[in-house]
Amino acid sequence: MALTALTTVSIGSVCAQPWLGARPKASGIGFTCSKSFNVFSGLKAASSVGIEADTSFLGKEGNASLQASFVPKIKPKQVFLNQLHPRASSFKVAVLGAAGGIGQPLGLLIKMSPLVSALHLYDIANVKGVAADLSHCNSPAQVLDFTGQSELAKCLKGVDVVVIPAGVPRKPGMTRDDLFNINAGIVKTLIEAVADNCPDAFIHIISNPVNSTVPIAAEVLKQKGVYDPKKLFGVTTLDVVRANTFVAQKKNLKLVDVDVPVVGGHAGITILPLLSKTRPSTTFTDDEVEELTLRIQNAGTEVVEAKAGAGSATLSMAYAAARFVEASLHALDGDRDVYECSFVESDLTELPFFASRVKIGKKGIEAIVSSDLQGLTEYETKALEALKPELQASIEKGMAFVHKQAVNAESA
């Protein structure tokens, strides 16, 4: 993978904005930020940042409330939803699996972005109602629906970002690995269509198990002759979102200040929050490290059990995926300081795929941040070594699935 490894990254003072941790520019809200923090998550890094918003979708009270929660000393101006207008640069986004538990809230959040001009919603059924519902929201993105395999190609033509939450959700007692046989085939079929219709698009894989579905996507794209490792992302943002939330709660920190890198993969012990790298610098006892690490690793199960058979982590996953989409759109729009954790092809370890911070630019991944793996604690070092065999097995399982399918097709 022809990428540059970043050994050190210096991020300046940043002022947060009230949209998913990313940096959309909107009209009608001027705000100042008197407090700065260090963070990578799709935010513009600069020594001094003055933020002028171009759009607001929450109205006066909603903006005031949200801003008060996240950013100190904000002075909102009155702005109304019908004042929204598209940015000079805008992009087409396709959501494959748009009628599902993740797809619906994800579609809503993407519809709210001023960087989106067209939102293409695809599913095998029930997507027309979702599209009709979202189309009534008076934000700029045009909403189009596509149903079934016969309309998939049309859905994908000319899109800049493809997001894939399609597949079955986890149920009580199920592991991500239990989802493999169903979701592997779904992802393979969708990626084949992406390869044929929008091979240059950014591809965001949400469908679990991500540790296997991303390698599946890579192998399919290779077979089609259009694989670009810089544009294939496994969305692990939810692990970061959870880590930030749990650490802020545990240590009584302002959530907007907290940033915890999460490396490895996206299932069980392969999820490794690097608490020693928490920003702002925070001290943890050994018990706190173990407790937080285990909770972050098992947070998906926590939701599955709490929903008692009624679903899995759909809302938080949609939020995290929308944050990653927004970061990607800002990178495509020319922002030079977009960093997110993602499961990608990587030479950071001996594993062919690995989740870590990456710098995203107009053409995809520009660099993989290596500094987070330097100076780890003894606990983190042992955990990193412990996750590798399981992650390797999941990666190989995904690759083997595609190769087996190809052999079966040739012999049929």
Description:
Homodimer. InterPro entries: Lactate/malate_DH_C, Lactate/malate_DH_N, Lactate_DH/Glyco_Ohase_4_C, Malate_DH_AS, Malate_DH_type1, NAD(P)-bd_dom_sf. Keywords: NAD, Oxidoreductase, Signal, Tricarboxylic acid cycle. The chain has 412 residues and is of the alpha/beta class. The protein has one domain: L-2-Hydroxyisocaproate Dehydrogenase, Chain A, domain 2, CATH 3.90.110.10. It has eleven helices and 14 strands. A six-stranded parallel beta sheet has the order 6-5-4-7-8-9, with helices on both faces. Strands 1-14-13-12 form a four-stranded mixed beta sheet. A two-stranded antiparallel ribbon has the order 2-3. Strand 5, helix 3 (127-135) and strand 6 (142-147) form a beta-alpha-beta unit. Helix 5 runs parallel beside helix 6 (210-224) and helix 7 (237-251) runs antiparallel to helix 8. The longest helix is centred in the C-terminal third of the chain and has 34 residues, at 378-411. The protein is globular. The two termini are 34 Å apart. The model is unreliable at 7-19 and 21-84 (pLDDT under 50).
